[in-house]
Amino acid sequence: MRRMVWGSTRSKWVTLCVILLLRFAAGQIQDGLLINGDFETQPSGGFSNEKLGDGSAAIPNWKSNGTVELIESGQKQGGMILIVPQGSHAVRLGNDAEISQEVRLEKGALYAVTFSAARTCAQLESLNVSAPPSGASQSIDLQTVYSVQGWDSYAWAFEAEDDGGRMVFRNPGMEDDPTCGPVIDDVAVKKLFTPEKPKDNAVLNGDFEEGAWMFRNESLGVLLPTNLDDETSALPGWIVESNRAVRYIDSYHFAVPQGKRAIELLSGKEGIISQMVQTTPNKPYRMSFSLGHAGDSCKQPLAVMAFAGDQAQNIHYTPNANSTFQTADVNFTAKAERTRVAFYSVYYNTRSDDMSSLCGPVVDDVRVALSGASRSVLGRVGWLLVSGFVLFCLVLV
Ligand SMILES: *[C@@H]1O[C@H](CO)[C@@H](O)[C@H](O)[C@H]1NC(C)=O
Ligand SMILES: *[C@@H]1O[C@H](CO)[C@@H](O)[C@H](O)[C@H]1NC(C)=O
Ligand SMILES: *[C@@H]1O[C@H](CO)[C@@H](O)[C@H](O)[C@H]1NC(C)=O
Ligand SMILES: *[C@@H]1O[C@H](CO)[C@@H](O)[C@H](O)[C@H]1NC(C)=O
Ligand SMILES: *[C@@H]1O[C@H](CO)[C@@H](O)[C@H](O)[C@H]1NC(C)=O
């Protein structure tokens, strides 16, 4: 008997080990930094300022094509110090150059890539991020620098079309000065899941807790650029429908009303997040949300324009020494089975300490629910009736 118990425990352990080993062997990717995603691993020939040739495998774990250069913090060029977002190394992509890394993915799953980027000398620098064989790609415009540090983190999401893929970063530019071109650092990937819709709230991911990877020790948040497809959003449920980005912030570096994450709206009307929520036509609803400041010395006043169906309300944040946020609501009557809710910042705010980093009001905990209690009481009575009926049937059987 004892033997059998031990035997079964042992077989459980064996099974567990086999599963873990298989997973390991399959190279199932872990959420977080890609292998040498921070470009800090020393190449076999040592770090050097020499440009890497075509098809070179000189950057450990990455493939490159075109002029790809490992740069070092403090490195100067034409009197200008190159920006290395984190650590002491990053890569720079010359005209039409690209780097890529193969990653294991799960077919059909949604992934978000997070990376840091800075521009060097050209004004119109941009990056083309893609993940073949998935046909999706996004061009990230690096013209607007959102933070005074000179670099930002961005996220982009895609659906895996196969069990593997490549993360590709390409500089589509053709500058006269071939040494111009974007700098990339800290590449991470995260498998996203779509949160379940809560019963009492029509908004998906209204607390913004599910979204792109954020490094625990990077303090600038992550910019979410334009993305009109809610099926492949780095912020599940939401779209960024403006041509400028909004900032995804964490509670380790910013004031967040609830949970660990929230959205900071930037650039006035040029930074809009929205979601289509399910509603019942002609019913009264109430949208409530938290409105606050991010604790980043953003110059007041802070205000949002909040939209719910045909209602739009301009709501000012009232500074309160005891709290970093307040709650606000918008009442509306649904006109259709899907209702748009959206937010943008009323003002163009910058930080009062550096006068140039973009900042703005924080939105969190967005809820849309039928207003008034009558419906839920009726619902409860209905539920009781149904349970009673089921019990009755069981007794009969
Ligand atoms: C490098 O890129 C060029 C054009 O962008 C392409 O023709 C060539 O096949 C690529 N080389 C490798 C090794 O991928
Ligand atoms: C990015 O590059 C891919 C492959 O070269 C191309 O098909 C795609 O159109 C580019 N995307 C954008 C948004 O420029
Ligand atoms: C952030 O953490 C990673 C490992 O988690 C480390 O390699 C890196 O040096 C850290 N960066 C900073 C700026 O502390
Ligand atoms: C902050 O809290 C203190 C003590 O609870 C209270 O006396 C004060 O009025 C509050 N201040 C504001 C602005 O609400
Ligand atoms: C919305 O309706 C609720 C009652 O259902 C009321 O308490 C609240 O003040 C209303 N909000 C606004 C902004 O009118």
TrEMBL record:
Signal peptide range in chain numbering: 1-27
Alphabetical list of Pfam families matching this protein: DUF642
Residue stretches making up the DUF642 domain: 32-190, 203-368
Annotated compartments: Secreted, Cell wall
Transmembrane segments: 377-396
Entry keywords, A to Z: Cell wall, Glycoprotein, Membrane, Secreted, Signal, Transmembrane, Transmembrane helix
Taxonomy, superkingdom: Eukaryota
Keyword Membrane: yes
InterPro entries, A to Z: DGR2-like_dom, Galactose-bd-like_sf, Pectin_Meth_Modulator
One cellular component term from this protein's GO annotations in UniProt: plasma membrane
Family annotation (PANTHER family): OS01G0756600 PROTEIN, OS02G0527500 PROTEIN-RELATED
Protein name: Choice-of-anchor C domain protein, putative
